[in-house]
User: Fold these one by one.
Assistant:
Number 1:
Amino acid sequence: MRRRTLLGWGLGLAAAFGAAGQPAVASGSAAGFSFAGIDGAEIALADFAGRPVLVVNTASRCGFVNQFGGLQAVYDRYRGRGLTVIGVPSNSSRQELATEAAVKDFCEVNFAIDFPIAQITDVTGAAAHHPFYAWARAQGAGPRWNFHKILLDGEGRIVGAYGAMTAPDAPKVIAAIEALLPAG
């Protein structure tokens, strides 16, 4: 009896807080998820409520690395109207630098990145346990490769997912972003 009680209590806590100690999120919204920032500060999606967010898993040694420039350009173009871009470095494809400091330096020196960047996070494969990416996979929007872009509306719902072959400034990405922003 005691084992069942402890098991039930443990499962209840796991359901309430998810695998990474984060609160469970309603299936339709990412608003309760957060990432550890590359500088150690939390990047909470709830902080961007009411504004669209483009979450992109990145890799510094990937053939699509020049998309960093496109991501920064999109961020520069639309941040004044509310868009946030969040870069999530990942070594899932074995193409990321070894440390957060190296990733940060690479992004700043080579692309003048100033949008929020998370710590290195596995996004695919057996080691991919981040709750945001588990949720995105369950929604059919999980990444298969680097530079996979997930566009969230102001309520935290997925409104678009774009693979590495789609540039950040591709017409369909820009149209989806503009549809979420106030006129301006």
Number 2:
Amino acid sequence: SPENAQGVYSDQAQEVVYIYERAEGKGVTVRYEDEQGNKLAESEVLIGNLGDRYETKAKEIKGWKVKQSPENAQGVYSDQA
């Protein structure tokens, strides 16, 4: 809180300023799986602030190719997991 968050009214104008920063959003977990849900590579967790954009990319996995990219491969960090 600002030093002058509490005070006494006077004949001089006063200003109280609160400084904010964006809160951290919920992490975005990126999983790499086959069609049966078997793990092909280690998951990654992306962290960012609420409202910031994120972008994921498919990993190169030997012997595998990407069949389908998820609709949420790009998005915005939110307060929802």
